[in-house]
Every structure is written in structure tokens, then in C-alpha cells.
């Protein structure tokens, strides 16, 4: 298939449809509104259903229903809207149901700004709903990667019966890049014999969310974390960029990582031995990427006041090895300021 | 007038007395000589020959504990 | 001998957790009887609320899902849009539907979702222990309105059937009660009609059941039913608030 020039939000929508998503429930919010608009246009053409809900809360609870009914279903929003969806995300998680949730992040807290940001790392990676849980969080740094990750997200959701969050930002959502929709061989998906379809002549299907007996809930939570262990073992992804001989490593994801890559190239041209570690899955976090004795400093770069940096510190098990630089409030990092900050850390370490 | 027979499941009965309150023949009461496994005095019929199979008791029973039959 | 009345196959064999005399049990039974009589038990999905009826999935012998508090109409929307040929209904109390879930019920009705809602109005929060509900009557006491609901402070009750009936997507709205055997029979007819509206694909249907909560009202079950007759029904008049079934049939 030839490459087509597409806006990020629309490419994500097309990828979802390619992945077999036929249900989308959403609510408008900048900078992701092109995604529900695309789904409203395109889903009916493939026999799918688009519903504009009265709120993000309602949208995620429609997703809960559709997912429990056995469908491939998606919703999307941006930061304040994702905050509203947290309740439903917790319910879907607890019920072990598959769903894909796209967050095109913008600056916060509160109504914040409509400019791109990475300040929802804590909310999405650490779990913004109540209780003991994780969601798989995929962080694309290009539109092509967003497309590939969305397709993969539906498989991961169905295999592990969990919400999968695509954590991108307004920049990925708004910019245009050439992308291709290679019909990658999808993974084997277990049969959804739990789906709500009516009991027919057989046993009832129950999607449960309440356990009044603490021992029952504890047992279910233990099972949940056994599942998480499998996900950590099998699904952790990251990219090493120019890391072979590196003595310093930038750490960045998503849009920040794109900008950091050009900073790395500039610094390499000047002779600095620096590379980039780019987590592609934020949960599970690629802890093994930070067990390198030859790295003097991990330089964490984010479009936030510093959130992923906590996980980098935990992963490398040496807080003194980790420094942070970030811009917040919707300010987009420049490669120049990253180069300057890198030099300030590396000093004359040529 | 039709004659009826009612069967009250002690297993389900919670002794709420709604059946007693709506019986037009006033032939139901709680059996105070007995406490069922739910911890309640279950409802009982005191005059089975007067039952007219109207099923008012069964319709008001929140536990679906009452079966009503008509004696033909 | 012929059977005049027996327990419906639409209910499981489980004992309910409801307090003695709670009208949830009556309404559960009526819904289950209707589903059995309409031969829908194999193809129905119930969305249960947060509140006392959160455990209703143990009692209705159909597929079931526990929704988040107030969100049952949204969850039901998701299910129904995936399976338009199945019967989907929500069973919600007044805290769930008329307080935290007001947006969800109003918009499900406005969209004309082809689902049915059974709405239990007993004027109180049952599961959490008797707090004031949006439907608590003026001057009625609740643990969070210890002196009685003062409308100058706590506002007025919401009349859900009247409100929902203003929405074009709502095709059948009736308020019934289960305070007497005669009203139980009427309530069942209304519930049947609501499911028929869904079967015909006409749109949204809602049956409000004026109910009792003996425990949190501090009354015996029999006295609680008298309270329904004397206090609740005068404030919440029974009747059909919306019936567009005939119009649609033309």
C-alpha cells in the first residue's frame, strides 16, 4: 500500500478501522476533535457506529458496555477529558474488558491550554482511577508509529483483556506525515466467550465489578497482577538511538523524543558520546534499558515538570545519575535548548 | 367462588407481612411459633378452606415465595 | 388443580439480599415475568446500577453487567449499539438515575436509545443508609436532612417521568407503583409495554416505580406501603406520561 499524507488524528482513526474497530464513542475537545470527526464520517461506511456522547464520562461508559458486548471499541480525548474518563477506565480494568483509549495530551492542570504537553504521564501510567491497577500505555513519536501502535493496541487489549492507552500529544494529533497502513499480521485473539450476547441456551454471561468479600477482591487483584507480570515480560518496548558507544543518555518519549533525536545528532556532530533511550511502552516501563554501567548520566527530557523521570530514577537504581529538563504548560521543547542543557551536564566531556 | 391453595416457601419468606396485609379473606398471619433460616417468623395460612385463589398475596410478595393454585 | 401463580423462570433460585418488604423484590419479579412471557430471557442483557440493586445480577436470570454509579444508560447504549437485536434494560434507583446519573438518563432518552429503563423511586438512598435522594419528599427526613428536607435549603424533588417525557426520543413513559395488588398488575402491564416499545424499535422507554424503603424510612413494610399510598403517590402521580406507540404505528 502506498504512503498517504495524513493528519495524526485522522491516521489514528483510520488505523483503528483497519484494526477492526467498529464502535467509537467520544466527545469533542481540542486538540483531538478531528479523530471523532473522522470516525463520524468513516465508521458508517464500514457498518460501524459512532455516537457523540454527552460527556467523556458517558463515552467511556459506552465503551465499557460495547467492550463487554464483545466489540472492538475506542474512545479518544485530550487531558481534561481523559481525567473525566478515569472512573470508567477503572471499571473496564476491573471487569477485565478490552478497550483502546487515545489521549492527545494538552497542557494542564485544569482547563490548562490547548497546546501539546506530556503532563498526563502520571495520570495514565500510574493510574488515574481508584484501586490497584495498571493499563498498557503506548507512546508513539511519529504518526506512522501511532498508526502501528493503534493496530497493536487492539490486539493487546483483546489478548490481555485490559484497556490500552495511546499516550500521544497535540503535536502528533495535529501534524501531517506520510503514513502507510501495512496490514501487519495481527496476533491470535482468544475467543470472547464472556461477551454479553444473551445467555441463549447456555450459561449466563456476567460482567462483574463488585466484590463484597475482601478475600475475593484480593484474589482477583492478585490475578490482575499475575497478568501484569506477563505483560511486563512480553510486551515491554523501547528504542535505543545511537546508544552503542554512548556515555550519556537522553531519555524521552513521544514528541519530546523526536526533538531529542535532532539534539543527539547535533551533539554527535560535535563529538559528544550521547544517545537516546526512548520508552515506547510507558507501562510496562522498560526498566532493563537503564541497567547500563557505562552511562554516566541519564538526562530525562519531558514536556512536563518531570513525571517519567521518577520511573527512570527507579529503573537505574541511582538517583544521582538522573537529571531532568522539561518545559511545561504547552511549551514545545526546542532542540537547541536540549543541546544546551546536554552540554551543561556533560561539560567538557568530549 | 373459586377455592384456592397457597404454598408459602419458608426458605424465601422474610416475614414482611405484605401478604398478610392484602389478603381479602384475612387468612394469613406470621407463624410466631417458628423462626426460619433467614431469622424471621414465616407467613402461614390459618384457614386454607377460605382461600379464593386471588393471588393478591403472591403479587405483593417481594421474595416470590408464594405459589397459588386453584382447586377445580 | 391449576396453577394461578408461581415463581417465574426469569428469576434465579438465589435468595435476595433485600430487607424484608423491600419493593425491589416485587419489581424484579414483574420484570422477570414479563421477560419470560415475551420469551426474551435468552436474549436479554440487564445493566444493574450502584445502589441496593447492584446485586440484581444475582437475581435476574439473564446476562448482566454492573455499571458505574449513574452510568447504566451509557453502558446500556454501548451494549445495544453492538447488539441491536438484543433486549437491553437498565434497572436504576433514584440516587443512581436522578442524581449522579442525570446526564446519562436524559441523553439516552434524548437519543432515543432503544433500551428500557426500570426506575425505582423510593425517595431515599438505600444502600448507603438513608441519605437524602433527589426524590426525597419535602419535609421527609433523611440522615443528611435530619430535620426533614427543607426546599429552601435542599431544593425540590425531581419528577423524573415528567422530565423524561418532554424528550422526543422517549416513546413510552409511565409512572406506576406496587403498593397494592391492583397496582402490581398495572405495573406489570406498563413494564410489558415498555419492553414492547423496545422490541418494536420505537425508541426509549422508562417505567418509574414508586416504591418503598421500609428500613430507611423507619417503617414496617406494611406501614411503608401506606406511606407510598398517602405521601409518595400524591407527590408523584401515577399514570402514562408519554405514549407515542400508537402514533408510531400509524
List the helices and strands and how they pair.
The complex is a heterotrimer of chains A (350), B (72) and C (250).
Chain A: E1 4-7, H1 8-18, E2 23-26, H2 34-42, E3 49-52, H3 56-68, E4 73-77, H4 79-95, E5 99-105, H5 121-127, E6 136-138, H6 143-160, E7 163-169, H7 170-174, E8 176-179, E9 206-207, H8 214-235, E10 238-241, E11 248-251, H9 254-269, E12 274-279, E13 281-283, E14 297-302, H10 308-316, E15 322-326, H11 335-346
Parallel strand pairs in A: 2-3, 2-4, 4-5, 5-7, 6-7, 11-12, 11-14, 14-15
Antiparallel strand pairs in A: 1-8, 6-13, 10-12
Helix pairs in contact in A: 1-2, 1-6, 3-4, 9-11
Chain B: E1 3-8, H1 18-22, E2 28-30, E3 43-45, H2 56-60, E4 66-71
Antiparallel strand pairs in B: 1-4, 2-3
Chain C: E1 2-5, H1 24-37, E2 44-48, E3 63-66, H2 72-82, E4 87-93, H3 94-100, H4 102-110, E5 116-121, E6 124-125, E7 131-132, H5 151-154, H6 160-164, E8 170-177, H7 181-199, E9 204-210, H8 214-217, H9 221-235, E10 239-243, H10 245-249
Parallel strand pairs in C: 2-3, 2-4, 4-5, 5-9, 8-9
Antiparallel strand pairs in C: 6-7, 8-10
Helix pairs in contact in C: 1-7, 3-4
Describe the structure.
The complex is a heterotrimer of chains A (350), B (72) and C (250). Chain A is an alpha/beta fold. Chain A folds into 2 domains: 4-235, Rossmann fold (3-Layer(aba) Sandwich); 239-346, Rossmann fold (3-Layer(aba) Sandwich). Chain A is 40% helix and 19% strand. Chain A has 11 helices and 15 strands. Chain A has helices spanning 8-18, 34-42, 56-68, 79-95, 121-127, 143-160, 170-174, 214-235, 254-269, 308-316, 335-346; strands spanning 4-7, 23-26, 49-52, 73-77, 99-105, 136-138, 163-169, 176-179, 206-207, 238-241, 248-251, 274-279, 281-283, 297-302, 322-326. A 7-stranded mixed sheet of chain A has the order 3-2-4-5-7-6-13, with helices on both faces. Chain A has a 5-stranded mixed sheet with strand order 10-12-11-14-15, sandwiched between helices. Chain A is globular. Chain B is of the alpha+beta class. Chain B has a single domain, classed as 2-Layer Sandwich (Alpha-Beta Plaits). In chain B, the strands form 2 sheets. In chain B, strands 1-4 form a two-stranded antiparallel sheet. A two-stranded antiparallel ribbon of chain B has the order 2-3. The longest helix of chain B is centred in the first third of the chain and has 5 residues, at 18-22. The radius of gyration of chain B is 11 Å and the shape is globular. Chain B starts with a strand and ends with a strand. With 250 residues, chain C is α/β, with parallel strands linked by helices. Chain C has 10 helices and 10 strands. Chain C has helices at 24-37, 72-82, 94-100, 102-110, 151-154, 160-164, 181-199, 214-217, 221-235, 245-249; strands spanning 2-5, 44-48, 63-66, 87-93, 116-121, 124-125, 131-132, 170-177, 204-210, 239-243. In chain C, helix 1 (24-37) crosses helix 7 and helix 3 packs across helix 4. The longest helix of chain C has 19 residues, at 181-199. The radius of gyration of chain C is 17 Å and the shape is globular. The N and C termini of chain C lie far apart (44 Å). The mean pLDDT of chain C is 97. Chains in contact: A-C, B-C. Chains A and C meet through helix 3, helix 4 and strand 9 of A and strand 2, strand 3, helix 2 and helix 4 of C. Strand 9 of chain A pairs parallel with strand 3 of chain C.
